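FAQ: What does a ligand-bound record look like?

Like this one, built around heme C:
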Amino acid sequence: MIIRSIKFLLMISFIFSLSAFNTQAQEVSYRTHIKPLFDAKCVFCHGKDAAPEYYAFKEEKDKWMSKGQGMRMDTYSHLIFYTAWPDTGSLMRRLDDGKNTKDGKPGNMYQHLGSTEDERQKNLKIFKEWVGNWTLKRWQEITKEDMNGIKVKY
Ligand code: HEC
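The answer part, i.e. the structure of the complex:
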């Protein structure tokens, strides 16, 4: 009888550990959350027809702008370039809704997050959870602690 109830308890705790595992799997990651969102809202101007690198865009900014294209951000490696380093805080400054910006205005990419305010807020939340520490600081001002908080899970 005792053995049986021990077995039962073990089974219950096993099931609980599985569900804890599941919640962890729900953590916002690039592959499950950000990539589909990016492909729906951003890839049109930041995909394979855009400047291959940030520096290539800067060298010929007018050319790319006249095509309505920005710089590529359609892979994990390209996108994280705009989070912690080297273009520190860029993604956060551009996507912020104005609550954290110096002038209180939304970043100029915020509008692309959705066609309604509800949708924009919902998608901003996903980006925020993915980044972790939503800092708008540039490389010169960012601290080691701020950097540690940037998660951008693959
Ligand atoms: C209609 C085209 C278009 C769409 C859609 C678009 N962008 Fe952009 N984006 C641009 C262009 C062009 C630039 C470069 C000019 C500028 O700095 O505003 C840019 C610049 C940026 C930058 C700044 C890079 C830097 O540091 O100079 C970031 C970050 C960015 N976009 C992120 C996004 C994200 C994320 C989305 C989707 C939510 C998005 N963009 C949607 C056209 C677009």
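Follow-up question: can I read anything off the structure? Yes, for example: The mean pLDDT is 92.
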